[in-house]
């Protein structure tokens, strides 16, 4: 998170005392592109778990689609380009798709943490 913070790209999911949030909000703006006050303590954590669940599910779909393209003798590069141009186009496809095709699996979020977040997200509801 250090590089995104330096680039002002963080998204803050805050909860607790809204008066404190209002006081620190200008400082959050210096490090992030958005800040949200979500209510009572714990709401920020729950929102982050939901976000991570969506991201993990999307990563699974991207990887499965690329594997299916390869198994079907289709170009994975073309699939990534097609996905980027359509309604499926998003930052995750743009960032991770080409790396998966190149079999470059640099981790920015370890699998064990993704699995933990998925378990906690499932427990939410």
From TrEMBL:
Tell me where in this chain the 3-hydroxyisobutyrate dehydrogenase-like NAD-binding domain is found.
Answer: 42-124
Quote one Gene Ontology molecular function term: NAD binding
InterPro entries, sorted: 6-PGluconate_DH-like_C_sf, 6PGD_dom2, HIBADH-like_NADP-bd, HIBADH-related_NP60_sf
UniProt xrefs under SUPFAM superfamilies: 6-phosphogluconate dehydrogenase C-terminal domain-like
Q: Which Pfam families does UniProt cross-reference here?
A: NAD_binding_11
Q: Which family does it belong to?
A: Belongs to the HIBADH-related family. NP60 subfamily.
Name of this protein: 3-hydroxyisobutyrate dehydrogenase-like NAD-binding domain-containing protein
Q: Which organism is it from?
A: Octactis speculum
